[in-house]
Design goal:
Length: 347
């Protein structure tokens, strides 16, 4: 199946990366349509997501990823229900890709928050693949029925619902997670600027978005504010600004100590997940204490970011270098659950 589809996937990758004039990530009309349906999905963020996912479809990357799994086989009769998240543009694309490349039929239920982009990608892939993709996917708008396995992503409450409703079905269920940064004080200006991508890309709405900083005692937070001026335009985005204003008013009313720069509120807090427009932080004396907390809460964390060259972290959570939390490769599986292995084992 995957050898048959590889040529069309390589072409699709070029389309997604905007390498074809006025198509894919270079299609201003498509990007505007996506934003009209969901104001969080700005053209810049949609383009960023399309380009990032399009790099997965470069021939060398596809081979490196797929060669870890059993050799090519024909189409399976297994129907894989896919309940896709919608917090980021095309965040469910990886699950769709895995279901089809493992030989199964994808039964796709798009999030109402991301109802334009995934269908546009699948329509383009179908046109490129022709008969090779015929009958390998279908759309679902109601309850998932007559499926052989389920991959679903949503809130923790949604996850509990799926756990009960699909208890007799092989499944991968994902709930809410977040990501953190652990700094050691040796970060350069470039490092701090790179961290800005982990914090601000996609408005901080993803499970790979950094919502909490662990800082060494004495760390000057002005170093971060100074490095993050390039993201000041976030303060002009209506939805983001509303979140910023709401939490500023709430925290001031509660007489909480906060730092602000017009587009980000920073608050010292033990919680892991900070609201949109805000960022929590804590100071530490011994990084071993932070490692212990990370390991205790590993099921709540997607990844940790640190500067390149920092001491190895004694933690059981994937570690990315600063600026790269939002740039997973196809083998960087969400929640560290190998989706392809799960799908191949169904047969």
């Amino acid at each position: 199946m995957r050898n048959t589809l590889k040529p069309s996937l390589v072409q699709l990758g070029a389309w997604m990366r905007g390498e074809i004039a006025d198509a894919g990530a270079d299609d201003a009309g498509l990007l505007a349509h996506v934003e009209t349906a969901n104001r969080w999905f700005t053209p810049a963020h949609t383009r960023q997501a399309m380009v990032a996912c399009g790099t997965w479809l470069e021939p060398e990357t596809l081979d490196r990823w797929l060669n870890k799994y059993p050799s090519d086989r024909g189409a399976s009769d297994k129907r894989i229900g896919l309940v896709l998240a919608g917090n980021l543009p095309m965040v469910g694309w990886h699950d769709v890709l895995c279901a089809i490349l493992s030989g199964h039929k994808a039964v796709i239920k798009c999030s109402s928050s991301d109802s334009i982009l995934i269908p546009a990608i699948m329509n383009t892939w179908s046109a490129l693949a022709g008969d090779a993709l015929e009958g390998r996917f279908e759309w679902s708008s109601g309850p998932m029925k007559d499926i052989d396995a389920l991959i679903a992503t949503g809130s923790n409450n949604t996850r509990r619902h799926f756990e009960h409703y699909f208890q007799g079905v092989p499944r991968i269920l994902r709930g809410q997670r977040t990501s953190i940064a652990i700094l050691d004080g040796e970060e350069t200006l470039h490092d701090c600027q790179a961290l800005g991508h982990d914090v601000f890309d996609y408005f901080g709405l993803g499970c790979r978005s950094v919502t909490k900083l662990f800082l060494p005692q004495g760390f000057d937070l002005n170093r971060l504010f100074g490095a993050w001026v390039d993201w000041s335009q976030l303060g002009t985005h209506n939805k983001y600004a509303n979140n910023y204003d709401y939490h500023k008013a709430l925290w001031l009313l509660n007489q909480d100590a906060i730092l602000e720069n017009g587009f980000l509120l920073m608050k010292e807090d033990e919680k892991w997940v900070s609201p949109v427009g805000t960022l929590f932080y804590e100071f530490y004396e011994n990084v071993s204490d932070v490692e212990q907390r990370v390991n205790m809460h590993r099921d709540a964390l997607q990844c940790v970011v640190r500067r390149e060259g920092a001491a190895e972290l004694q933690a059981t959570v994937p570690v990315f270098t600063l600026g790269n939390s939002q740039c997973p490769l196809p083998w960087d599986y969400a929640d560290e659950v190998d989706t392809m292995k799960f799908l191949f084992e169904l047969s």
